[in-house]
Amino acid sequence: MYKVYGDYRSGNCYKVKLMLHLLGAAYVWVPIDILRGDTQKEAFLAKNPNGKIPVLELDDGTCLWESNAILNFLADGSEFLPSEPRLRTQVLQWQFFEQYSHEPYVAVARFIQLYQGLPEERREEYHACHVRGHKALKVMEKQLQRTPYLVGEHYSIADIALYAYTHVADEGGFDLSDYPAIRAWLERVASHPRHVTMLG
After folding, report:
1. I need a labelling partner for 30 at 20 to 30 A (CA). Which of 15, 39, 99, 144 fits?
2. Hey, what's the torsion of the CAs at 73, 75, 76, 79, to 10 degrees?
3. What is the fold of 85-190?
4. Does the domain formed by 2-75 have CATH 3.30.565.10?
5. Cα separation, 79 vs 68, whole angstroms
6. CB within 8 A of 129, min separation 6: which ones?
7. Rounded distance between C-alpha atoms, residue 193 and residue 197, angstroms
8. What is the pLDDT along the chain (200 residues), one digit of tens a residue?
């Protein structure tokens, strides 16, 4: 039985939740309130010295952190992580893209708007996030015009990694109406029979 330490509204935590549901794996969710400082408490830092969620705790007490690393651990040997080296590398390619070119802008804009209420002192940063976030969305749109999923014909953890914050991008002020391929992909991902919503 896995333990997941996280916040249901966090896209990074949602990646882990969605992966567990797709695999039909049993888990216990331990709520963590980042705004209340839960991630900086001694007990949490013993699980992740970097003080961030999500954390996946295994039966033997081992703790794994960094959402995309957890996805790779959980998906190993499953249909959601290809074994062929080129395809597996393309999965990693999209996961790195998510962490460096997508999440820092799409997720941060959402945090500023949803969690902080768009304070005046962060408005300039918020608008800058939109410029860079739309650049990332355009990269995704081009790929999804060519293939149904980010790595070819099959749903993988590359899709989970990018679905997490893209499907709630509107909560950060992003309008996806100009991205028809992304919108079709969002529907495709959500149509999986074992799909679970962020707050479901």
Report:
1. 99
2. -170
3. Glutathione S-transferase Yfyf (Class Pi); Chain A, domain 2 (1.20.1050)
4. no
5. 16
6. 104, 105, 106, 108, 109, 112, 172
7. 12
8. 899 999 999 999 999 999 999 999 999 999 999 989 999 999 999 999 999 999 999 999 999 999 999 999 999 999 999 999 999 999 999 999 999 999 999 999 999 999 999 999 999 999 999 999 999 999 999 999 999 999 999 999 999 999 999 999 999 999 999 999 999 999 999 999 999 999 98
